[in-house]
Amino acid sequence: MSVKHSRDVAAKEVAAGKATTIQVLISSQEAPNFALRRFSMQKGGGMPPHTNTVEHEQYVLRGRARIGIGEDTYEVGSGDVVFIPEGVVHYYENTGEEPFEFLCVIPNKDDQITIVNAASC
Predict the structure, then answer these.
(1) What is the C-alpha end-to-end distance of the chain, expressed in Å?
(2) Quick one: which of 26, 106, 39 has its CA closest to 67?
(3) For the segment 6-39, what is each residue's pLDDT rounded down to a tens digit?
(4) How far, in Å, are 10, 34, 79, 121 from residue 37 at the CA level?
């Protein structure tokens, strides 16, 4: 077991993202089944269409964003809960004036990320 404060976890730039950082709050080395991550997208930031080989469970902490999941588009904000199945194309666009932040839980499995051409969505 461990307890730490999120401010003590380094934020790293998301390579494929725009103005987006990730903090791995609980890593696969710390917990046997799931990892917990915090994403922050600055105004105008986001992530391009992509797929993952693991599912995502997400909880929006603050801000507003447009999230595309498969053929559907959602406007989300603080308190919303999002489920993204494995293998489904998804993207994020911060549509607000403040940072868009969410917690993301994923299973501790190998996660292959594939960027998808936006024209094919």
Answers:
(1) 42
(2) 39
(3) 999 999 999 999 999 999 999 999 999 999 999 9
(4) 11, 10, 17, 26
Q: What is the 3-state secondary structure (H, E, C) of the chain?
A: CCCCCHHHCCCEECCCCEEEEEEEEECCCCCCCEEEEEEEEEEEEEEEEEEECCCEEEEEEECEEEEEECCEEEEEECCCEEEECCCCCEEEEECCCCCEEEEEEEECCCCCEEECCHHHC
Predicted TM-score (pTM) above 0.70: yes
Encoded amino acid at 52, one letter: N
What single-letter amino acid sits at 74?
A: Y
